[in-house]
Amino acid sequence: MIRVESLTKVFTAGVFKKRPVNVIDDVSFTISAGETLGLVGESGCGKSTLARVVLRLIPPSGGRIFFKDTEITKANPKELKKIRTKMQIIFQHPESALNPRMKIYNSLVEAMRLQQIANNRREEGAKVYQLIELVGLNEEHLERYPHELSGGQIQRVVLARILSLQPEFIVADEPTSMLDLSVQAQVLNLFKEIQHKFNIAYLFISHDLDVVRWMSDRIAVMYAGRIVEIGPVDKVRENPRHPYTSALVDAFFALKNSGIDKIPDPKADKLPAGCKFYPYCLKAGDICKKKPDLKKVAEDHFVACWQV
Amino acid sequence: MAALLSIQKLRTIFYTEKGRVKAADDINLDIAEGKTVGLIGETGCGKSVLGLSILRLLPRNAGIEGKICYKGQDILRLSGEQIRRLRGKEIALIPQSPSTSLNPVLKTGVQITEALQLHQKLAREEAWKAAVEMLQSFNLPDPERRVKEYPHQLSGGMKQRILAAIGMAGKPSLIIADEPTKGLDAIIRIQVVEVLHHLTKKTGATMLLITHDLKVAAGLCDEIAVMYAGEIVEHGPAEEVLGHPRHPYTMGLLASSPNNGLKPIRGCSPSLINLPAGCKFHPRCGKAREICAKKHPPLVTKNGSQVRCIFH
Amino acid sequence: MNGAVVRARPHTYLLTRLNRNKAAVIGLGIILLLAFVAVFAPFLAPHHPYEQNPEQALLPPHPEYPCGTDDLGRCIFSRIIFGTRISLEIGIMVTAITACVGVVMGLIAGYYGRLVDEIIMRLVDILLAFPGLVLALAIAGLLGPGLFNVMLALAVVGWMGYARVVRGAVLAVKEKEFIESAKALGATDFYILTRHILPNVIAPVIVMATLGIGYVVLAAAALSFLGLGVQPPTPVWGAMLNSGKAFMRTAPHLTVFPGLAIMITVLAFNFLGDGLRDILDPRLNEREIE
Lengths: 308, 312, 290
Hints:
- The complex is a heterotrimer of chains A (308), B (312) and C (290).
- Chain A is built from nine helices and twelve strands.
- Chain A has helices at 47-54, 77-84, 104-114, 121-134, 151-163, 181-198, 209-215, 233-238, 243-253, and strands at residues 2-13, 19-31, 36-40, 62-67, 70-71, 87-90, 169-173, 201-205, 218-223, 226-232, 295-298, 301-303.
- In chain A, the strands form two sheets. Chain A has an eight-stranded mixed β-sheet, with helices on both faces. A four-stranded antiparallel β-sheet of chain A has the order 2-1-4-5.
- Chain A starts with a strand and ends in a 5-residue tail after the last strand.
- Chain B has a domain at 3-90 and 212-307: P-loop containing nucleotide triphosphate hydrolases (Rossmann fold, 3-Layer(aba) Sandwich).
- With 312 residues, chain B is an alpha/beta fold.
- The radius of gyration of chain B is 20 Å and the shape is globular.
- Chain C is elongated, with a radius of gyration of 23 Å.
- The termini of chain C are close together.
- The chains are: A alpha/beta (308), B alpha/beta (312), C mainly alpha (290).
- The interface between A and C is medium-sized, with 30 and 21 residues.
């Protein structure tokens, strides 16, 4: 359903000395219909930029993105608008996800109006009621303003609004990281339920490995703009092959520090040209100064590391 | 062991335009010397208010009743000058969000030495040396260089260590850590956990750890108190509370965490202005009976644990 | 912040909040009174504003002429009442024009950024480098006296402040996630600007415009005081001051009463503007506890 080929995004950093920074560096992956690809990595590794570039909310600097064999990197504005109904995004911060001056009802019908989905106001209204029932909201929420709703309720509104377009692919950029545990559980269950009902593909971004494990079929680990490991969720968790992945898995699941204390931050600038993890890696050798490609280590399991 | 801090019948109320917000109600909590007590709960349960109440750092529209005894003296009766002397020197606050809690235009070293000079009356050079030593003990790589840098040059984990050093400058006996790991990535989070572990286990300091992260609480705390809607609903040894939860809310909270299958609690937390009658959890509780809506359950002690549920 | 959030609904609480701000209520009251006076001027004025009465020139205030008469024997009170019309007309029209131009410029500069932003904001900088009133004087002098020319002159020098404020607000709002969502839903730039960005940046504009009306009334008075405004015999406060200044020693009421009218009007708009600033400030509007 979604195919991304050597996607690159370069930003310029620095006020006086402009220098290019590869925020996303040669990223490729595919997601099939009804599948969830989890994307993990630390803040600043480029995962949120990737989310936006995949949907072409930010234009890529290089590489190609396909949605069902249509190359959206080449689509003109009109085609893009049509494809947009099928590819949607949910963001992290509930407090800025909706226009604070619009009532919930208006936010909900906005998507339908923009894409001319309903034929008249009555049909529109009927659709809204269907949607809020689907996501577990009720009528009284419709006349409220976003600040009168809780974070969990807002993420439901956002989901309902997206569903009005009958999308086939949703990018979820840390949709529950700002929510409380008990509410996160509600929202994540809703995500799964919706996925099964409509056979939607997710790109699910999170820094919470537990959440990703629960949500995803496959998982991609990102470090400094590159995917360093990608594979089935349990294989990556049980048997991480990339040194960065194992550090991450240890830190997260066992609250164990495995010599990764020296990792200052995974931002792409100032890191070497070869393996980005090279300066911090305990296994590093000379060959690591060259850029490693993803290679197959098991069925469906790929790692970008010279030492594997 | 004697309690270093003893909170008795504490009630903190905010007077707002919309009504009285009972942010903390009927809080009884003893923290024994050298122990780490975790205060867990979700947004709006009043756990941060409790932390700030101890330091009397609440906004002006707040009213506090009850007693907070620290080393035998009631904090709520101290004069402004006395409480100011207590802050930092005796009781330290390690704030959340390391990125906004440091002054961005001062070198980190200056910020630590400032605190050292204030509390320990050290000379400048001594203070710098002490700052470097403290950072070294927190496992901060290359501390000599770090003290000469500005906050934006450091990662979140490093900043949190700087904050810990500032907090520890007065050699406090009680540390209040308010969500120290909120919003941090796994690798930085573990670094912060290590620093906190170091603080308590090696220096013997007492800590009140306010967090919503069950993993961090499990890793650091001796005792855990669970708060819901302004009340403590369960309090006991960490293994007991997390291993064999008794209150339905604690059970629900544990079951809804992602490593336990994400079974949600229905509904959402009540507004602190409009709390339900009886047990405050009953509208969301699977085990609730009629009586739960009428009778407000007291905190009952049983086998060393306290639970606020009528069925106990 | 961790805890319950108690927030006021912007619309329903506007009036109650306004009510609590005494200065703003007084300001609003005076403005409503002024508007009433302007609309019903012919019924309220005891005399015709143009009616000359040479025998009764320079009379001090007395029951028939509450503010006395001027050198041509016209009733100053009636002229002030009719002057309200022109003052408010200029104040509101000019402010409306400047606010609209400024808002559009600010929206475009802030939203599109880069070269467009650069061009608009440098223009703003250049215009702001001139002292406003002097520039207005120069323009009004160039165009010649007259109501329309005064308004034009004041409009040219007034829009930059709005543009700056709006641009800044747009920069903050356009990074919000709901803007990105709207893009992802296939919304056009025009739609995003009008439906999502404008409503979220309009509050400071309202405050500025309220304060701006007062400023424009003052500036218009200054221009007509210098003889560049609306021409006599039309009753204008500034021009009344001007013609009264020759008699300042012998008949101070010629200048005192129009001066008072200007002061009260400007003060009223300033009171209301400051009150609105407090009310519309989002930080005060969404008061968080804990």
